[in-house]
Amino acid sequence: MGKDPLFIAAFCATLAGILFFAWGGKSKARDNADFSLGGRRAGSWSVAGAITGTLVGGASTVGTAQLAFLYGLSAWWFTLGAGLACLFLGIFLAVPLRNSNVETIPQFISRYYGERARVAASLFSALGMFIQIVAQLLACGALLAVLFDLSLLWSASISALLVIFFTLGGGMKSAGSTGLIKMFLIYLTMVAAGILALQQAGGLSRLAEPFPDFPWFSLFGYGVQEGISDLLSMIVGVVSTQTYLQAIFSASGQKTARSGAFVSALIIPPLGLLGVLVGLYMRQTSPDLNSALTLPTFISQNFPTLFAGIAFAALLIAAVGTASGLALGVSTTLKVDVLQRWFSRWSESLAFFRTLTTVVVAGAFVLLLFNLGSAIMDWSFLSMGLRGATICFPLLFAVFFRQGISRRAGVLSIFLAPATVVVAGVLQVQFISPLYLGLGTSFLLLLGGFVQQRFSRH
After folding, report:
1. Would residue 446 count as lying in a domain?
2. Does 406 map to a domain?
3. Which Gene Ontology terms cover its molecular function (predicted)?
């Protein structure tokens, strides 16, 4: 199908259309404020578009269908967890973060822990996001390689160029509108796939017939501990990543920021259920299939050629959009928290911002060249560990316990917790995830500092 002229035309036209929205008209960034925060004029739907445009990637679609093929309903944890993470963001964090009028998470953290904490938090969190860009480039490259029979080198190169083009057009100003368009296309694809899977199977009861209730229709089909771990990982990931919180910072006000998070919480989880339907159908009809090809194979076999071109473009855009949002998060963090003090003369120019963003993506691509055969999830786990251990608890303590936190404990946490993740990764610790080692170190240090502050006051 990848060489069918109609498929190629639909695929390319869809990509070109999204690129036009990223670069054209009102979406085009005209200065730094537009590029990083959209001028702080984003409405609820734009905030939701910016969040979902990055949060909904290949894992929400291709990855969910793959896990459903292997385990059933427990594949829903990723999108369900993403929705609950956005709900947590809307209830507890959206208002204080938007009211802070900052541009980055380390900037917010520095108000409570000082400038040393700001620089360290910026470098570690930027490194975590940077590593995740490598994972997304691998995912994009794999999709293009399968579709068009390209080498992974060529497909990864094309993916890097797409990420640069999608990011540089409007930055955060276009992230909301392009994110909503992307979500529309993803929903169109997944709703069509879910309905077709049900029709082909003969209805929900016939689809479920061959599978025992446990483990196939339990959220804990692959383990209670694993399910809870996935949920906690999603909450930590959303709370700890500049890209998602940058959407909150870009909102026109606190009500808009909260509403945008709630809209995201509402629209993300159903995507996972649609992916589960596809995974179960393919498990029933093609049990020997390579699980990673579950959704692509279903689309190839069941979608009309024109619609298949649009659908595959939507899947590619999902991964590209995630990488694009991460690249914007890295460049914003580095510019505001690290480079501005040394390059103050140039850092306020839009050209500097765009150049920095290009360098970030190019750097991820160079790192990818030396690791073309590496596993996507290995990069993702390291990324999550660095971001979560660095940002999560220092941010939560700053929001909920601002009067009693210890600056010294905060600085130690931001230096030592990610270092624990790195050491655990190098030593290949197996008995516990490096993310939880880092989170545990961070929490104990901050809690110790909080208790010490309370006793010193008495």
Report:
1. no
2. no
3. transmembrane transporter activity
- 42 has which bridge partners? 251
Whether the model pTM is above 0.85: yes
> Could you read off the pLDDT of 415-435 as tens digits, one per residue?
999 999 888 877 877 778 888
**CATH number of the domain within which 123 lies:** 1.20.1730.10
Structural domain including 217 reads 5-376
pLDDT digits (tens, 9 = 90+) for 74-85: 999 989 999 999
pLDDT value for 427: 83
**High-pLDDT (> 90) share of the chain, %:** 55
